[in-house]
Amino acid sequence: NAGVMQNPRHLVRRRGQEARLRCSPMKGHSHVYWYRQLPEEGLKFMVYLQKENIIDESGMPKERFSAEFPKEGPSILRIQQVVRGDSAAYFCASSPNRGQTGELFFGEGSRLTVL
Amino acid sequence: KQEVTQIPAALSVPEGENLVLNCSFTDSAIYNLQWFRQDPGKGLTSLLLIQSSQREQTSGRLNASLDKSSGRSTLYIAASQPGDSATYLCAANGGSQGNLIFGKGTKLSVKP
């Protein structure tokens, strides 16, 4: 059973470009969470999605960031007009249930560098 | 608002030593607490998950305890090995949505 798959593992963008990060949850998992880890900082929750629904986006920056989890295909975290402060590791986690008592399984992360 | 703190931020021990990593949280109304390991440039590997109704969980040389009333959890590593060198993160699950609130981690170095 493959784990949580994230791609790309590393992404370099120039300021003003767009970054798209993809996450395929573990088989049988329908709950996806995105976290961001800034250098020397802890992981911060960004958004929680189920298929075709955003459940909680309280951790998402108000502008330039969006996320989706379509009926078919991976979850996508999209960052428009990237700035240097967006440079970070972005982690996706999945869970088979709502998550109140369940375990979250994390991917290897996508490391974004903005030049 | 839940806050999770891990002390110490870094720890260096000789091989073979038993050690304890500490995690504290401000809101005792949690559903569970999860310990992770993170190697440099890598993702998070789940080590142990303790439900709010449990006091401890064990896996091999690892033992995690949970005391909700005092807002503390500890990760005990027995007979440490150089391969245990990594950053250890604890995360509290207190929201109805299952979001984890992470501490900043303890960076462990086990010297041969």
Which terms would index this structure?
heterodimer, A: 115 residues, mainly beta, 4-stranded antiparallel beta sheet, 0% helix, globular, B: 112 residues, 5-stranded antiparallel beta sheet
Describe it for me?
- The complex is a heterodimer of chains A (115) and B (112).
- Chain A has strands spanning 5-7, 10-13, 19-24, 31-37, 43-50, 53-56, 65-68, 75-79, 88-95, 105-106, 110-114.
- Chain A is mainly beta and 115 residues long.
- In chain A, strand 7 (65-68) and strand 8 (75-79) form a beta hairpin.
- Chain A starts with a strand and ends with a strand.
- In chain A, 37% of the residues are buried.
- The mean pLDDT of chain A is 92.
- The radius of gyration of chain B is 13 Å and the shape is globular.
- The termini of chain B are far apart.
- By secondary structure, chain B is mainly β.
- At the A-B interface, strand 4, strand 5, strand 9 and strand 10 of A face strand 4, strand 5, strand 9 and strand 10 of B.
* Gyration radius of chain B, in Å: 13 Å
Number of DSSP-assigned strands of chain A: 11
Give the distance, in angstroms, between the N- and C-terminal Cα atoms of chain A.
Answer: 37 Å
The succession of helices and strands of chain A, N to C, reads: EEEEEEEEEEE
Rough outline of chain B: globular
Q: Give the termini separation of chain B.
A: 41 Å
The count of β-strands of chain B is 11
Strand content of chain B: over 45%
Tally of helical segments of chain A: 0
Unreliable stretches of chain A, pLDDT < 50, 5 or more residues? none
Poorly predicted regions of chain B: none
Largest sheet of chain A: 7 strands, mixed
Alpha-beta content class of chain A: mainly beta
On the 0 to 100 scale, the average pLDDT of chain B is 93
The Rg value of chain A, from CA coordinates, equals 13 Å
Morphology of chain A = globular
The amount of helix of chain B comes to under 10%
Please name the two chains that share the biggest interface, counting residues whose Cβ lies under 8 Å from a Cβ on the partner chain: A-B, 30 and 27 residues
